Amino acid sequence: MKIGIIGSGEVAKRLAAGFLKHGHEVTLGTREANKLADFAKANPKAKIGRFADAAKFGEVVVLAVKGSAASMALEAAGAANLAGKTVIDTSNPIADAPPENGVLRYFTSLENSLMEQLQKQFTGVHFVKAFNSVGSAVMVNPQFEGGRPSMFIAGNDADAKKTVSGLLDQFGWEVEDMGSAEAARVIEPLCILWCIPGFARNDWFHAFKVLR
Length: 212
Ligand SMILES: NC(=O)c1ccc[n+]([C@@H]2O[C@H](COP(=O)([O-])OP(=O)(O)OC[C@H]3O[C@@H](n4cnc5c(N)ncnc54)[C@H](OP(=O)(O)O)[C@@H]3O)[C@@H](O)[C@H]2O)c1
Fold this sequence. Notes:
Layout: E1 2-6, H1 10-21, E2 25-29, H2 37-42, E3 47-49, H3 51-57, E4 60-63, H4 70-77, H5 79-82, E5 86-89, H6 114-121, E6 126-129, E7 150-153, H7 158-170, E8 174-177, H8 184-187, H9 190-201
Parallel strand pairs: 1-2, 1-4, 2-3, 4-5, 5-6, 7-8
Helix pairs in contact: 3-4
The protein binds NADP nicotinamide-adenine-dinucleotide phosphate.
């Protein structure tokens, strides 16, 4: 598939490398292409452009920017370039204030997630929350002693979630579909939980798994 990635940070680069590894075509979008110079050198098949270039290119688009900038980044990407497309929303609404005893602060509430805000603003886009509740280092085919970890997803469009589920399967995840966009209210805060062992004892290699 053609994957457009809006972002130049760790998540954007890890996922881009993963998509390339699995044979997809990738364009990353950034406001500052020089940030991706080393990545481009190491991954010559990746194309680099502006946010709008990534949005236009992608059959599936990944949103991987700072949560507080997500709305601005999507505006710059262009609603018309994203219309009718699946957008994998990896972002978290992390506030600027520092964590309290290793517990991140969010600028959203349990009644209003970031993804719902984005879904209301960009009505023609099929957002699917995914990849937000694990660190970038374990996003692509992580090898855990406990087997395949679980990825919680949510979104209003069944076809979009089917597409994302296929990609998650390639990336070595078991998919746990939590339903419509409102479920992002609980999936986004899972990042807070995931980060606690990291801040407490530098343990950043773990993931969630649902047992049945
Ligand atoms: N790091 C992780 O392990 C991890 C794991 C799960 C989820 N997440 C979430 O995934 C997202 C990406 O995380 P990250 O660590 O890769 O990168 P990040 O440092 O959170 O964000 C970097 C990206 O945000 C964009 N950005 C920042 N300010 C902006 C503004 N004012 N307007 C437009 N764009 C702006 C940057 O654009 P330019 O390219 O133009 O500079 C860059 O692409 C975040 O929401 C984060 O919470 C991160």
